[in-house]
Amino acid sequence: MAEASVQMEPMLALMADESRSQLIKQGAEAKIYASSLITSSTDASADKVAMLLKYRFPKTYRHPALTASITAARTTAEARALVRCMRAGVNTPKLLCADEKHGVLGLEYIVGRSLREALGGGNEGGEEEAVSREPPQPLLSDSEALEAMGLVGEQLARMHHANVIHGDLTTSNMMLRAKLPGDDTRAGVAHQEQALVMIDFGLSSTSAMAEDKAVDLYVLQRAFASTHPNSEHLFAKILDVYQEQLDTLEGGTKSKTKASAEVMRKLDDVRQRGRKRSMVG
């Protein structure tokens, strides 16, 4: 019976195999493992593809039936958000495999560093504990940082054009990696060496409402304010490119060029509500 159980739960067995999987991050909601995917089940010499395993582990404080339901729903929603983004041209890790029952996603391993690290930002609240760390790399210069912000604005525009709301936009959930031949970058925000990849869609949802997109942007603005002091010019660059790209993606007709204007109007409303809450405490 035990052997049959392992066969039914191959991704859990893979995580438990220390020769192939290593825990690299631990968060409140999930554990992240560096692992590999064998491309053939019959060929012993088949190539191994590096991948990450994201495991939503069971919560002991919840009823098992409720935990199973929530885990399956959130894992499925994240997988669908990734597929939707990829179809819209958003740079995300490729979805390699999924086990919604046990809360495991197999994702492309992105070789790079977080945008927070590249900008020299401080720690964010609730940041996952890193089990292992790479050697530090040089920080982006101001001109390089502005180029990276253009990439952020472009990716956010594509994501929102696909009506995907990330739900947890921070510079920790964006990665810079070397540009690959297949990367699609719009004219005007091309970066010579790097591409920006959006990660961690665990809190994502779908919505066509301008206010939901504005809240997404406001979360990122607050993250910049708390993690990257004196970064107002960087966030302004994100919004400039975001508006330009969103209007381009919407088709550029008279009726559709208002798409970004509506999101910006809602962003101003969200900011006002945020200030009022801060004043009231």
From TrEMBL:
Entry EC number(s): 2.7.11.1
PROSITE patterns to which the protein is assigned, alphabetical: PROTEIN_KINASE_DOM, PROTEIN_KINASE_TYR
Gene Ontology CC: cytosol; EKC/KEOPS complex; nucleus
Reaction(s) this enzyme catalyzes, per UniProt: L-threonyl-[protein] + ATP = O-phospho-L-threonyl-[protein] + ADP + H(+); L-seryl-[protein] + ATP = O-phospho-L-seryl-[protein] + ADP + H(+)
Entries under InterPro entries matching the protein: Bud32, Kinase-like_dom_sf, Prot_kinase_dom, Tyr_kinase_AS
SUPFAM superfamilies the UniProt entry points to: Protein kinase-like (PK-like)
A biological process term (GO) from this entry: tRNA threonylcarbamoyladenosine metabolic process
Top EC group: transferase
Keywords attached to this entry: ATP-binding, Cytoplasm, Kinase, Nucleotide-binding, Serine/threonine-protein kinase, Transferase, tRNA processing
Gene Ontology MF: a single term: protein serine/threonine kinase activity
Protein kinase domain boundaries: 1-281
Family (UniProt): Belongs to the protein kinase superfamily. BUD32 family.
UniProt xrefs under PANTHER family: EKC_KEOPS COMPLEX SUBUNIT TP53RK, NON-SPECIFIC SERINE/THREONINE PROTEIN KINASE
Record's protein name: non-specific serine/threonine protein kinase
Organism: Acaromyces ingoldii
